[in-house]
Task: inverse folding
């Protein structure tokens, strides 16, 4: 299994999961940042099921670690998997 290193020491994630997560975040980054900048009370929550739950967990981690600077991260809900 290929593992992609993440911004935190000694943490990694499956390459495929990382690739999907980064693509999704790239697709939504401008929209989320613009909305967050215009709505300072805005909090981004994540919700996913099964493999989507894994993507949401990774996305919430990356956003919280500063990938989308200025976006407040709220709760993560995941089910299955």
Result:
């Amino acid at each position: 299994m290929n593992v992609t290193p993440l911004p935190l020491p000694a943490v990694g994630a499956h390459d495929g999961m990382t690739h999907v997560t980064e693509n999704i975040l790239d697709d939504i980054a401008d929209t989320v940042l613009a909305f967050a900048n215009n709505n300072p009370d805005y909090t981004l929550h994540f919700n996913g099921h099964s493999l989507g739950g894994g993507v949401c967990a990774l996305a919430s981690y990356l956003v919280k670690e500063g990938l989308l600077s200025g976006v407040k991260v709220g709760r993560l809900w995941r089910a299955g998997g």
